[in-house]
Amino acid sequence: MPISTNRRTLLTGAAGLGAAASLGACANARVVGFDKSRKSLDIANSSEPLSLDPHKATGSWENNIIGNMFIGLTTEDANSEPIPGMAERWEVSEDLLTWTFYLRRASWSDGEACDAHDFAFAMRRILSPETLSQYASFLYPIKNAELIHNPPEGTAALSPDELGVTAIDDLTLEIRLEHPAPYLPQLLKHYTAYPIPKHVYERVGDEWVKPANIQVNGPYKLTRWWSNYIIHLEKNPRFYDAENVELEHLYFYPQNDVQAAARRVLSGEAGWATRFPSNQVEVLRRDLPGYVRVSPYLTVNYFSFNMTRPPFNDVRVRQAISMAYDRDFVASQIYRTGEQPAYKFIPPGVYNYATTARYPWAGQPLEERKREAERLLREAGYGPNNPLRFAFSHRNTSDNPRVAVVAQNDWNAIAPWVTVELRGVENQVHYANLRAKNFDCGDGGWIGDYNDAKNFLYLFESRTGAQNYPGYNNPIYDQLIRDSDVERDDARRAQLMLQAEELLLREAPICCSVFINSTNLVHPDISGYEDNIEDIHRARWFGIRA
Amino acid sequence: MLALAVRRILVAIPTLLAIVAAAFLLMKAAPGGPFTLERQLPPEIEQRMQAKFGLDLPVGEQLARYIFGSDEGGGLIRGDFGPSMTYKDKNVIEIIAEGAPTSALLGLGAMALALLVGGGLGVMAALRQNKIQDYAVMALAIAGVCLPPLVVGPVMQLLFGVQLGWFPSQGLYRDEFGLAYLILPIVTLSLPLIAIVSRLMRASMIEAMRSNAIRTARAKGLPEAQVIWRHALPIAILPVVSYVGPALAGVMAGSFVIETVYQLPGIGKQFVYAAQQRDYTLVMGVVLIYSFLIILMNLAADLMYRVLDPRTRTA
Q1: pLDDT for B18-58, tens place per residue?
Q2: What global pTM score does this model have?
Q3: Domain A299-515: which topology?
Q4: Closest chain B residue to A208, measured at CA
Q5: Cβ contacts (< 8 Å) between A20 and chain B: which residues?
Q6: What is the C-alpha separation between B130 and B132, in angstroms, rounded?
Q7: Residues A382-393: pLDDT tens digits?
Q8: In degrees to the nearest 10, what's the CA dihedral of A344, A347, A352, A358?
Q9: B99-265: which CATH topology?
Q10: Considering CB atoms only, which of A22, A210, A467 is closest to B39?
Q11: Which of A36, A279, A474, B301 supports an S-S bond with B245, CB 3.0-4.6 Å?
């Protein structure tokens, strides 16, 4: 998913607003963010959900809510590792293409059975083009999924009935795949693979997700959704593991302003904030001892070079610009929560991917790199008589403008004849520009949707289309990714992806910047909260420390 | 009077349509769209999304569809504001209905307070013109206009919410609604209004006290209190009435700053978020409500004029 925590962040004006508002570290004396006697938890979530329908959701802040309401075939433990969910166990065929899931006996919150038919129905619905799901492409490894959802131009879409998902009986679900996908258990815990209550949907259609209609199979049920104000979930007594769910009420507040999120915790009105301003980490560590949680995250910030036009259609220019950028400074001085400089593209800690990829020049000191950059630029024909000028477009939210200034400074310092102009714009406009290739060099970020290197590398496949912002088009790269898709051996698959990543670093369609950490404020008396690379924390694991 | 009201309401319809058209075209002129996201949609899906909301049509047709609806129904003239383009599970009416009570209460409360306090202070300042009371009131008014709610809000929270603990400092109590939670926001919102109302009141009261009507009243030997309340005030209040109409519409349509500082669920916040996300239908919905309020309040102000000022009745 995109770095969406920023996508809906307020206008820059609101940053000032947040600062002003934080002057009055306010408290509503009656709200206790983590109320042990009422077993309730108030959560400062990063934004207002655009949808709570798992087939239409797109953001991590929506996942925070939806994932407490539904359980897929697999689900996540406190460490976000896949564990059996609605499926108690599964078998994989010899050719790795057919998976058979054996479901547990369980029910929806209204008592109706939640079974294999609900899963088959849900997967057909999300892939049906009428549903207008934006994330359905996650399920493309399933047989015929892509041909149903987004058929190649000129061919008619298949009917959703052709999907390779069959309810063999009430408790047995068979999923056939296009190609081996050893990461299927990772994928099936994602919200795109959640079941929806078929019996409710057949009665009320898309309205099924309204509080009055919704039935859930997970630990919590939606009781109130007040737009841009509060969402209230209550424990679902019919959840199969309800006896081990300790918290009774969850209240989610959309907190677009990251300062306000921290303030809500400071004032005791929230027991958990899903992020905090990283430049305040020292103050927060002092004022909220035991609350600050920082962890490596499946997120990389990178700059795209527009390869479809000069100057960045020349690999030497791209390399030079990547080289001269001081990511160490940005990682340590702009971000303050131990972020790692990115000398490679895929964040460390990705499942089954022990990467050794690194920029070839990663070991050299910055001064040397700047000299080398100047040499490369001269070689590419730039110099005092042919100065290099380009614009760096960035999002004007969060830390991005400050990063942009550092980058501009580094690049201007290569030589007096290098001039970089900054163009900060609103997120929506920025992405529109990137997609339209209306930029020279532009910032961006990527949060992995599931814990697999493929979820990062696919961005630069030529078939990815407009989202391949640099317009990178290398048949060798494409082939490596395709080969890795059909490779059955985990180690060999990792090897293929590693080659692709190394190619990416050499050809530099992008300049890797920083691996972002996840930041949370968590009441120290909440047990069962574990730091993890996906930054997914389900309330069913939370308990109360005496 | 009835004829005037009917005439004005009839004129309001084309005015509203013009506002709708202008706002619609302005929205369209902003770059990006509701589906310009970082994760690009598959082309097929994006086309379908565009088609669902009619965004693939020429702008003129989009506008026509928004106002008159399509074959499947909808359209403003049928009272349908359409589905929200970003909040996929809700339609515009639902979203506005969730936020409107808070914003309306805030606006009405703030204006009532402004009229009582601002009006009273203005009259007092006028009657004590160039005396210490006058200067004090005017100094307060200047401060009220100069200090934005952005500054006053947090200070009030700190003082009355945290230090003194008299009022809840922000938000409702989870999803519970109560007037007590709105007191501080109402006061904050009303301060600039009090300032403006008191200045207006003062100026027009001074003028009224010098008018022939008042001289006549005094010459008749009426007691001073009656001169002021029966004769001067109805004349002096006219400029205030014409200010209050549109201003009331403004505050009732929601205040982004107040709603953010006090964490309240109003439509002012919705409007700003919607504009950022290019949620065309939601933006249009709020614009419509606001314009409708403006027209309504202006009409109300004009009718009030007729009641208060005998001269306009014959004109």
Answers
A1: 888 898 888 888 777 777 665 556 666 777 777 877 788 88
A2: 0.83
A3: Dipeptide-binding Protein; domain 3 (3.10.105)
A4: B89
A5: 150-151, 153-154, 261
A6: 7
A7: 999 999 999 999
A8: 10
A9: MetI-like fold (1.10.3720)
A10: A467
A11: B301
